[in-house]
Amino acid sequence: MRREPTKVYLWTVANRLYREYDGVYVGNYTPHGGGISTGMRRAMNNQSLIGRFKETLKWTAIRSGKVYGEWDEDGSTRTCHVCDYEVPGGMSPEIREWTCPQCGTHHIRDENSSINGLKQVLEKLEVPGSGRLGGRKAVWTRRA
Questions:
Q1: Phi, psi of 23, rounded to the nearest 5 degrees
Q2: In this structure, are residues 68 and 74 in contact, taking their beta carbons and an 8 Å threshold?
Q3: Which of 8, 41, 75, 94 is most enclosed, with most CB atoms within 10 A?
């Protein structure tokens, strides 16, 4: 009987996010390994809590006239958000912090990935009446 409380929780969080933000973007992470195909892993991920949350976010965005999107997480943790250097061969999941050998920037893995995701979203974001953001800076704030 865990299904109903989980569903209520997902709707509550989605509605709260869209009350405060006009757009929500989520990484498109798909687990690797386990001897199963990419399609099977993606199908299993869609049935997971994060998969159900993404569906809830999509539906809530449509219902409230807001924006939902996904960004490509591939390589986001191993790519320096400052100079775009990419660690060859990837990094072990146990490595939580690293320093870019090219520019010397110290990265916390999850924060670096988030900044790379934000860069992707901003590059593709359509701004009504002005086209793409291009090289301009965007200011993101929570609505009061």
A1: -145, 145
A2: no
A3: 41
| Structural domain contains residue 141 | no
Host domain of residue 98: 74-132
Residue 9 in domain: yes
Among 28-32, 70-74, 102-106, whose mean pLDDT is lowest? 28-32
The answer to whether residues 47 and 112 belong to one domain is no
Cα dist. 20→35, 119, 133 in Å? 41, 21, 22
Helix, coil or strand: residue 8: helix
Domain count, the chain: 2
For the whole prediction, is pTM greater than 0.90? no
142 occurs within a structural domain = no
Quickly list H helices, the chain.
3-20, 38-47, 49-64, 109-124
140: in domain: no
What angle, rounded to 10 degrees, do the helices at 49-64 and 3-20 form? 50
